Amino acid sequence: MIHQNTLEFAEALDAQDELKAFRKEFLIPQHEGNDVIYLCGNSLGLQPKSVSQYVGKQLGNWQQHGVEGWFNGDDPWLLYHEQMKKPLAAIVGAKPEEVTIMNSLTVNLHLLLVSFYQPNSKRYKILVEGGAFPSDQYAIESQVNFHGFDAKNAVIEVFPREGEYTLNTGDILSAIEKNADELALVLFSGINYYTGQVFDMKAIAETAHKAGAYCGFDLAHAAGNVPLALHDWGVDFACWCSYKYMNSGPGGISGIFVHEKHFENKELKRFAGWWGYGAGKRFLMTQGFVPASGAEGWQVSTSPILLMAVHKAAIDLFEKVGGLEKLRKKSLMLTGYLEYMFEQINQKYGEELFKIITPKDAEWRGCQLSIICKRDGKKTFDYLTQNGVIGDWREPDVIRLSPVPFYNTFKDVYNASKLLDESLTALV
Length: 428
Ligand SMILES: Cc1ncc(COP(=O)(O)O)c(C=O)c1O
Ligand SMILES: Nc1ccccc1C(=O)C[C@H](N)C(=O)O
Fold this sequence. Notes:
By secondary structure, the protein is of the alpha/beta class. The protein folds into 2 domains: 7-35 and 323-426, Aspartate Aminotransferase, domain 1, CATH 3.90.1150; 54-320, Aspartate Aminotransferase, domain 2. The protein contains 14 helices and 17 strands. The protein has helices at 7-16, 51-65, 85-92, 105-116, 134-146, 151-154, 169-178, 201-210, 230-233, 279-282, 305-321, 324-349, 377-386, 410-426; strands at 26-27, 30-31, 34-35, 37-38, 47-48, 99-102, 125-129, 155-158, 183-189, 214-218, 237-240, 254-258, 354-356, 369-373, 389-390, 392-394, 398-401. The strands form 5 sheets. The chain has a 7-stranded mixed sheet, with helices on both faces. Strands 13-14-17-16 form a 4-stranded antiparallel sheet, with helices on one face. A two-stranded antiparallel ribbon has the order 1-5. Helix 1 (7-16) packs antiparallel against helix 14 and helix 12 runs parallel beside helix 14. The longest helix has 26 residues, at 324-349. It starts with 6 loop residues before the first helix and ends with a helix. The mean pLDDT is 96. It binds pyridoxal-5'-phosphate (PLP) and (2S)-2-amino-4-(2-aminophenyl)-4-oxobutanoic acid. Pyridoxal-5'-phosphate (PLP) is lined by residues 104-106, 133, 135-136, 189, 193, 218, 220-221, 241.
């Protein structure tokens, strides 16, 4: 598409936007009486207006039924999560029985590592992306220690080449091949939180399997953002949070995927709890854990219904919008326009004042662009915040901005980039 650096152009794109009605489904935070320019769905997605009603309904069920709410009413809580399996499966490219919702993200990563990281003296290494989100690094390190290994030796990190920011797929695959004999697991994010790079999950999973290792993904930044095909890629397991692109609230419930090929795999140990026992037999209170078939067999604890109600409100919007493909189409345009506006600023000043470190090829990025400022990045970020643009700053030197197709407009992108341009003169 041929872009133009004018407000009229941005407004024309908004006028043609098939999804423009969806912005009204969200509550937009305010700054000095106006909507903020919210470009931070990579950290916390905005609240759907329907959330109060969905949560209110469950509060009403609690009020009316008390404990009977688990079994009675039009939405018995015992089965509440089941309503979200089909739409969630569509979002991550899975079969409904391969997904469930439970706990929060790092907790689920640990639970899945209990099953999929069972090292022995020969195969004990985990291969990961260098610069993974810290919570994942800590989880991996502590798992390796828990099994009596030393992270310095057992965790292999693949880093970008000298002078580059993103990882080369060939380097990832050859690192897997090189360590094939000792690898127990390849664990990557779907999208790196810092650079916004989408990894080649299909190739990584294939190569990991050829090497005799399991392969799992943390999809915090990918779920609800980019198309995924976890089942077809043969991924062993995955987990994600719902509070970013799935708009399901701070600390919102997390999702897991376990490939159906593992449903009968008796070698996979797990940490059990009664919620992993099939719902039909859970209340028989029998001795001896028998996991429910499917991803549900990894559930541990009572469903947090209020969090699930928020999630349901948000997930229903994915169905209403007509699926992830629709969102992705607009997302590519929004992020493409943001990239163009950065290029315009750099051209105007004749130097790369804003360096985008996210891959240029749209196939390998989602909503987010990560920018390194040649001039003071932190001050530039603060300038944006003071002027009503919400993005985020990640140490040591990146501003992350993510236009989100559900609620952002092309005008948001235009206005944010005008403020960035302005910051260059305002901050001198
Ligand atoms: C890739 C990744 N993993 C893990 C987390 C943390 O997950 P939680 O704090 O919800 O456990 C985040 C974001 O906070 C993340 O981006
Ligand atoms: N859970 C949070 C709580 C507080 C502040 C930020 C977060 C994030 O999710 C950060 C995000 N994972 C990131 O990619 O930086």
